[in-house]
């Protein structure tokens, strides 16, 4: 058998790619993720895709927390050995993470109506990391890739348009991200030219821009140089403003 080590995984998108690959190869996943939200994402993804898995670090952390009488977050656990009660909010977040993983990268477009938030953008604009971050806060998120020559799912235009948000990025930054990504996947020069060359990158962004212009209700987020938390905070605000029927301009606005 073969053992593959993946170190310093602090990106949810990369984590999901590893688990997807494990599912394809009928492999087992052992993980030591210190971030509880990352560990929960790994657990849910492995369950959904039928990948045998073991959280190596979790039991150790739990044992230390029980011995010290605190949770990993530093919140008192009360009586020794007693777990904190599982709240409705906890189950809501778990359900949101499960939904979001199932809907990643345009999967199950017929289920878009059940999403709280739908993200749309070209490849490598950060749709998956932002989706998982929002899911960890309890939002059911779907993300739809915009690809030249590929028609967007009909259901995208049949759902409530006010829950759709577009993502865009500076072409130079996108090219750099794609070149790094293509290299890590071992793509040849021919494939890289169709994915990470500037002409193609600009064409894809322009194509996405035309779609955004045709759908002026969708707010557009410029993600260049922004942390996921920063973009997520604005998405939250707009999402709740719209749910509360706050007045908003019916034009495509960039954030």
UniProtKB/TrEMBL annotation:
<keyword id="KW-0723">Serine/threonine-protein kinase</keyword>
<keyword id="KW-0547">Nucleotide-binding</keyword>
<dbReference type="InterPro" id="IPR005177">
    <property type="entry name" value="Kinase-pyrophosphorylase"/>
</dbReference>
<dbReference type="GO" id="GO:0005524">
    <property type="term" value="F:ATP binding"/>
</dbReference>
<dbReference type="Pfam" id="PF03618">
    <property type="entry name" value="Kinase-PPPase"/>
</dbReference>
<keyword id="KW-0808">Transferase</keyword>
<keyword id="KW-0418">Kinase</keyword>
<dbReference type="GO" id="GO:0004674">
    <property type="term" value="F:protein serine/threonine kinase activity"/>
</dbReference>
<protein>
    <recommendedName>
        <fullName>Pyruvate, phosphate dikinase regulatory protein</fullName>
    </recommendedName>
</protein>
């Amino acid at each position: 058998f073969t053992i593959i080590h993946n170190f310093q995984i602090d990106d949810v998108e990369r984590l999901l790619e590893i688990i997807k690959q494990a599912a394809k190869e009928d492999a087992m996943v052992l993980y030591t993720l210190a971030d509880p939200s990352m560990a929960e994402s790994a657990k849910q993804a492995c369950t959904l895709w039928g990948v045998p898995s073991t959280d190596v670090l979790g039991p150790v952390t739990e044992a230390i927390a029980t011995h010290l009488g605190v949770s990993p977050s530093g919140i008192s656990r009360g009586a020794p050995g007693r777990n904190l009660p599982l709240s409705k909010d906890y189950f809501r977040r778990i359900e949101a993470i499960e939904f979001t993983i199932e809907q990643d990268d345009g999967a199950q477009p017929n289920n878009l109506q059940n999403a709280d938030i739908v993200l749309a953008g070209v490849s490598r604009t950060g749709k998956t990391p932002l989706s998982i971050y929002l899911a960890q806060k309890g939002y059911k998120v779907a993300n739809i890739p915009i690809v030249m020559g590929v028609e967007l799912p009909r259901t995208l235009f049949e759902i409530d348009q006010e829950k759709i948000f577009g993502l865009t990025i500076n072409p130079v930054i996108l090219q750099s991200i794609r070149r790094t990504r293509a290299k890590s996947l071992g793509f040849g020069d021919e494939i890289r030219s169709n994915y990470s060359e500037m002409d193609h990158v600009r064409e894809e962004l322009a194509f996405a821009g035309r779609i955004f212009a045709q759908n002026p209700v969708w707010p557009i987020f410029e993600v260049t140089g922004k942390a996921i938390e920063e973009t997520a905070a604005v998405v939250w605000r707009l999402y709740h403003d719209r749910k509360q029927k706050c007045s908003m301009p019916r034009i495509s606005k960039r954030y």
